[in-house]
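Bug report

Summary: structure tokens for Carboxysome shell carbonic anhydrase differ between web form and batch submission.
Environment: batch mode, default settings.
Steps: 1) Submit the sequence below via batch. 2) Compare with the web form result.

Sequence submitted:
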Amino acid sequence: MPSTTADLYRQPITQRIDALLQLSRQHAERFCSPDAWLARQRYMAKHPTSIVVMKCMDGRIHIPHATQTPLGIITPFRNLGGIFDLGWPYLGELLTETVLQATQSGRATLLLITYHFSSGHPARGCAGFNCDADAAKAHAYAIAQQAGQLFGHDHQQVYPLVCGFETDSDAMILHGQGGEVLDIRDWIDRPANDLHATLASLCPDMPDDVQRDLLPLLLGNMAHVSELSGVTRELEIEHREWVICIGRGFDFLHLPNTALIIGPYGPDLAAPLSTAASIIEANMRAGRIPKDGFMLLASTPYQDSGVDRARAVLKSRFLSNFAEQVIRDHHPGLADKMRRHTAIVHWPTRRMESLDAPCISS
């Protein structure tokens, strides 16, 4: 794989696709390694709260990395702009199923509803909200309100927490019920032991066990932000996406400005697909990416063999065919440059299996 993401953008489309699929294989290998498996088991034994994150598809928002949390602990929901509506039938059912699985095993759920922004330059903010951080934050609060309607307003079983993510520093910013803020950037030189009391003051209605299991994320984020302090980083102002992803199972994909991920949650998939195609087209016209092609990747996770896997195959093929048709209808010139890949992901191992040739995973 190229040594930097900048190197990757300059490669021919076949090499870019090979590099991306290699990244998926490497992610599965790390996830399935004995030390990673043991780390997950130990972590969940100490911190059993189910943690769900609703976030933008932007590759910079990598919560496990930014909190130094083992892979597989945090359940991600990703969509363009972090835009969700819990009234969307499939999303509501999927989120409810995730919560019920935790509840039936005696675990509460922490629902982190994120938005992101850049302190250094507004243009590095969320494109889904035209880089308007206030609008992105307001949307996160609206989702939190819906979560209360869905799971109860006492927040004892499911605790919705609005969380900003400052992408220049990778810092988390927690928002309390009364408007108070806990910004990890303010804690770099402060005693970590004081964080517990501050969190309790910020979220007085948060159950004690959820507070206990949120603290490791905050402490990990403090350590991560501190490590990045003074380090020169490529902040990736320029959009150079060359992949359109439709479906779920893309947690291996955290390269900045590489992919536009459309979750299969809303009632209208055609509009975001057309928008994503417009972005790819604009990137080619501006010379930000080569004009030799782009990748369309459809993916669906499954848990078990048999019917569950067969359902995933049908769903991925449907999503792939649907996405291709939308792009051909609305962007016929771009469609001729499309490299389509259809896959399913065995979620317990994160291994991606191609439904096309060549095989994505060995």
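Above is the batch result. After comparison, the two runs are identical; trailing whitespace caused the diff. The radius of gyration is 20 Å. Confidence is low (pLDDT under 50) at residues 358-362.
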